[in-house]
Specification:
single chain, 86 residues, mainly beta, 4-stranded antiparallel beta sheet
Length: 86
């Protein structure tokens, strides 16, 4: 799963086939298809979540305590499936 964090307003949002943007408008992005996506903005920080890790955490949600952790990561500047535009 690809997300964008705006370092200006701290909004974080998931992508869709329709262009999405943060509340301050300085970060925006969208999926081109089910794998490739684009984003833009000097304040944009691309974030990834491991889908299998998230699904496992959801399946093993505890009734109490701190919750089940899952894997999230900062996507590298040069990523073959997530391109900075502009």
């Amino acid at each position: 799963m690809k997300l964008l964090l705006c370092l200006e307003c701290s909004d974080m949002f998931n992508l869709d086939l329709k262009m999405q943007k943060c509340s301050c408008g300085k970060t925006k992005g969208q999926y081109i298809d089910n794998l490739y996506a684009i984003y833009e903005g000097a304040s944009a920080m691309p974030i990834g979540i491991s889908n299998p890790s998230l699904k496992e955490a959801i399946s093993n949600q505890p009734d109490e305590g701190l919750g089940k952790e899952f894997t999230a990561f900062i996507i590298p500047r040069n990523c073959p499936t997530f391109f900075r535009r502009g």
